[in-house]
Amino acid sequence: MVISNLFLLLIIPTILFGLYAQMRVSSAYSKNARIPSRGRITGAEAAQAVMARAGIHDVEIVQVPGRLTDHYDPVRKRLALSRENYYGTSLAALGVAAHEAGHAIQHKVGYSMLKARMTLVPVTQIASQILPFVMFGGLFFGGMGGLLLEIGIACYFVLTVFNLVTLPVEFDASRRAKVELVNLGIIERDEMKGVSETLNAAALTYLAAFISSLAYLFYLLALRDRD
Prior knowledge:
With about 230 residues, this protein is mainly alpha-helical. Helix content is about 75%, strand content about 5%. The chain has one domain (about 1-225). A hairpin with a 4-residue loop joins strand 2 and strand 3 (about 80). The protein is elongated. About 35% of the residues are buried.
C-alpha cells in the first residue's frame, strides 16, 4: 500500500507535468511562429550571424525534416534547423535558431557543463537502450527485484545526472541567444517577449525530463528499501 501511494505521489504528477510542458512548448511555439520579426531575417541567417559574431566559421547550418527537431551536433560541428525555423522569419524561428547557435558558442569557449554533457552522452545512450527491457522484464516477471531492480536504479541514476547537467546547458544557450539577437539588431527589444516565451516554454520540457527521471529513481530506491 505504501509503495502504491508513493507511485501516485511521485510518478503521476511528473507525468502530468510532462504533458503540461509539451502542451506549453507547442502552444508558445505555434503562437510566436505566426509573428514575423520586423527585420525579416531567417533563422538560418540569424544563427550564422550569432556564430560569426563569436568568431565561429566552421559550423555547417543544415535543414532537417520534422517540427522542433532543431539541434546542435558538437561532434560533427553541425547546426540543424527544421524547415520552419531554417527559412522562417518569425520570433519563434529566430529564438530557436539563436538558441542552437548558443550551443555552438558554448562548444567554442569550452563551456564546462556542455563538456560534462558530451561526456555523459555515451553512457546515457546505453542506459536509455537498456531501460525499456528492464521495465518490460519487471512487468513480465510480475515486479522488479534483485538484479533487475539494481539495473533499473543505475539506468535512472545516469538519466537523472544527464538531465540535471542538461538544465544549465539549455538555460545558458537561451541566455546567449537573447543577448545576441538584440545586440546584433536582429530583433528589437519589444520583440523579445515572443522569443522569451518560446525559449522559456522549451526549457520546461528539460525541467520535466529531469523531474521525471528523479521521481522514477526515488521510486525504485523505495522499492529496494522495501525489499
